[in-house]
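Work Package 3 (structural annotation) set out to generate three-dimensional models for the target panel prioritized at the project kickoff. During this period the team completed the workflow that converts sequence records into discrete structure tokens, so that structures can be stored uniformly alongside our sequence database. As a representative example, we reproduce one entry of 142 residues exactly as it appears in the project archive.
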Amino acid sequence: MGSYPILKISLYAPKPLPDGYPKEIKTIGDHIRKKRMDLGLEQKDVAKMVRVNVNTITNWELNYSVPPTRFMPQIIDFLGYYPLDNEAKTIGDRIKNWRIENGIPVKRFQQVIGMDRHTILRLENGEKVASRTLERARAFLR
């Protein structure tokens, strides 16, 4: 009987993603779930950080509901980044990003800027608004 050489072979493959890990990141809930799983945290841990009920985190991660604006500052702190498209192409985009980053709902923001709620929403959606409205928004952003 002859001898056969021993081959040393090493195979490398990426570690499989855990069950429930988002395949695509499309929503704020997907961002939260990905970050939580990357850090090895449980939903209750994130709930404490964001100061919500654990069921709220579950609903966000499963995309059953969307986080209200008032929780965005804590979510941004947890994620370490702004999870929405923040490429501000217009004044309305800049206003919306500022409002969301600071956790201010439209209803409260209308008191801050002195504009009607519907005007704010038209501005944020890129619809036509009066020139004085644009000037007031520009002044606010300065």
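The helical segments are 28-39, 43-50, 54-61, 72-79, 91-101, 106-113, 117-124, 131-141.
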